Amino acid sequence: MTDNPTRKVEYGVTPTEVMASMSGIDFLRAMFAGQLPAPPIMQNIEPFDHSVEPGIVSFSSVPGFRHYNPIGSVHGGYAATLLDSAMGLAVHSTLPVGSGYTTLEFKISFIRGMTKDTGVVRSEGRTLNVGRRAATAEARITDAKGRLLAHATTTCLVFEIPGPPAKGM
Prior knowledge:
The chain is of the alpha+beta class.
């Protein structure tokens, strides 16, 4: 998750207490800057050319032969990973210190198929509404010509991340 494809990306899981100590936008900016590990799922899509603002996250990726299904096109799971990631990160970008989220459901519409020849695709997620307990977001995948390839909506559960136990307990 970098603008520099030659930089070695470190994959891993950030400790919960580190994530809980940061606002969502600060956490994502640190992750995209390589100051925190990129989630292991991102090894499958190798995102680059990222942008993160409160409520809006975008990144690019290139579908390849390794993403193919048995019928000779990019598997729908590739698009699902891009869309779920973009929507979830958009929600995460709005959360205060001590809050987390998880996807409750999402719906995808596939508009155009992808192949290894599709080239760079751009995924953009935007929040629709973020409340104390639930958030909704949408995302789109477009090709280099701006054509819509797939789109989705999600509902996420927003929750407080429990802090460490009080001293002396």
